[in-house]
């Protein structure tokens, strides 16, 4: 096995086509039923990502190939489980290690679709859970939707660190970076872990826990962002290694989702639809959350008066901390995630909130990529939105939960919002792209 890995890595150094093919195949095998258990895929994926970071294979191609490979492995595993059904326990590796299958079944029966998201980050479960989902006849459409989200998160988590290591070979981290990065990671990890755990346990205080921890994290960041200069500068410089003309267009399109004009349009449409549907509690929650985040962000910007990075040909003149795009993006999509999870099982609430974090995080990351903000700016914006959203949810549901919207309501909301986003993205895109030229 070691000789095979060394040979494969040697080939990947020679050609980006070999490298791309090997990334796709490795991701597929790592997520394929049973094969992923014996294949040291995590090590190999990290090594390939490091090579990709120091080669001509860009980050978008790396993430796309990893995502497609992982998704293909999931689909094949699901098809295998769906076809074999009760014969699955007779498969060679599972005959000798029945506890693997038992553990996966317990995990799936306890968390349902959420297990496909959580299990991707648990080595022995990753290649078995999709097969168990097929064996237990999970609906194809639901499996595919959840797997798309899970594979995307897995691809980012398993390849982005390696790519950054490879890209940083010529840009060594300065002294103090890892200490500052460890402090930031520790705070975010505590917030995420405690919020997820309390939500899955269906604690009545889950919203209070999330609001309190996010508020404390935001306060510590406000008090200490000036001491994170090394962290900000290094990640800002590292993001510039990623810049390509094609990736610039993608990130500019993503960042427009968080523009004030875009957010004002979609927020107004969402509130109008909730009013027409007579969903008054949902309307109050949505309006007060979005308005509070906007006003709070504006106030904090002028309190801290932090200057932006001066890399763009025409640097942005307004203040930087917290990021308005990050705050508004997280506020809007978290509101959608909360409304989608009303009167749903806990695991589905967690899935909807996880799905809401994806576009919000992409908007936030695009601001650093386009050199419009420092990394701590977008973290502050995300924490601000998370704090306000959790606190408002706690207050509004103190006596009575927000009622769930019907499927018809959601069809109309999704259609209208998609049209609104598409229209705003296409409006004068060339001038927006020019704005972020460097």
Automatic annotation (TrEMBL):
Residues 282-393 form the Phosphatidic acid phosphatase type 2/haloperoxidase domain. Its main location: membrane. Belongs to the DedA family. Gene3D superfamilies: Phosphatidic acid phosphatase type 2/haloperoxidase. Pfam families: PAP2, VTT_dom. It is found in: Cell membrane. Signal peptide: none annotated. The chain crosses the membrane at residues 16-49, 61-80, 143-165, 177-197, 209-229, 260-277, 282-300, 320-339, 351-372, 378-396, 408-427. It comes from the Bacteria. Keywords: Cell membrane, Membrane, Transmembrane, Transmembrane helix. The keyword Transcription regulation does not apply. SMART domains: acidPPc (SM00014). It is a multi-pass membrane protein. InterPro entries: DedA-like (IPR032818), PAP2/HPO (IPR000326), PAP2/HPO_sf (IPR036938), VTT_dom (IPR032816). This is Bifunctional DedA family/phosphatase PAP2 family protein.
């Amino acid at each position: 096995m070691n000789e095979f890995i060394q040979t494969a890595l040697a080939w990947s150094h020679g050609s980006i086509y070999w490298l791309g093919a090997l990334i796709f195949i490795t991701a597929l095998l790592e997520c394929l039923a049973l094969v992923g258990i014996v294949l040291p895929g995590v090590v190999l994926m990290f090594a390939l990502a490091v090579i990709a970071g120091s080669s001509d294979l860009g980050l978008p191609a790396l993430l796309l190939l990893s995502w497609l490979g992982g998704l293909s492995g999931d689909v094949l595993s699901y098809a295998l489980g769906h076809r074999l059904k009760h014969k699955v326990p007779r498969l060679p590796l599972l005959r000798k290690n029945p506890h693997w299958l038992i553990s996966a079944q317990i995990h799936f029966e306890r968390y349902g679709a959420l297990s496909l998201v959580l299990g991707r980050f648990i080595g022995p479960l990753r290649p078995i859970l999709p097969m168990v989902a097929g064996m237990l006849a999970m609906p194809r459409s639901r499996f595919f939707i959840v797997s798309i989200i899970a594979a995307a998160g897995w691809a980012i988590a398993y390849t982005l660190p390696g790519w950054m290591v490879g890209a940083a070979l010529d840009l060594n981290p300065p002294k103090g970076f890892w200490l500052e990065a460890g402090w930031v990671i520790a705070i975010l990890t505590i917030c995420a872990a405690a919020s997820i755990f309390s939500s899955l346990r269906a604690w009545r205080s889950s919203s209070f826990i999330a609001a309190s921890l996010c508020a404390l994290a935001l306060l510590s960041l406000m008090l200490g962002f000036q001491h994170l200069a090394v962290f900000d500068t290094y990640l800002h410089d590292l993001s510039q290694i990623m810049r390509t003309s094609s990736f610039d267009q993608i990130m500019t399109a993503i960042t427009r989702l968080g523009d004030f004009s875009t957010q004002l349009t979609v927020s107004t449409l969402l509130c109008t639809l909730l009013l027409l549907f007579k969903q008054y509690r949902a309307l109050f929650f949505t309006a007060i959350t979005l308005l509070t985040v906007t006003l709070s962000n504006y106030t904090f910007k002028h309190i801290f008066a932090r200057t932006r990075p001066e890399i763009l040909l025409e640097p942005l003149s307004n203040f930087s901390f917290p990021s308005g795009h990050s705050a508004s993006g997280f506020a809007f999509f978290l509101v959608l995630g909360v409304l989608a999870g009303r009167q749903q099982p806990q695991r589905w609430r967690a899935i909807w909130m996880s799905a809401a974090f994806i576009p919000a995080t992409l908007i936030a990351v695009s601001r650093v990529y386009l050199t419009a903000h420092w990394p701590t700016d977008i973290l502050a914006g995300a924490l601000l939105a998370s704090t306000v959203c959790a606190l408002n949810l706690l207050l509004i549901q103190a006596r009575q939960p927000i009622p769930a919207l019907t499927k018809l309501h959601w069809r109309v909301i999704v259609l209208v919002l998609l049209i609104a986003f598409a229209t705003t993205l296409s409006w004068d895109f060339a001038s927006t792209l020019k704005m972020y030229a460097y």
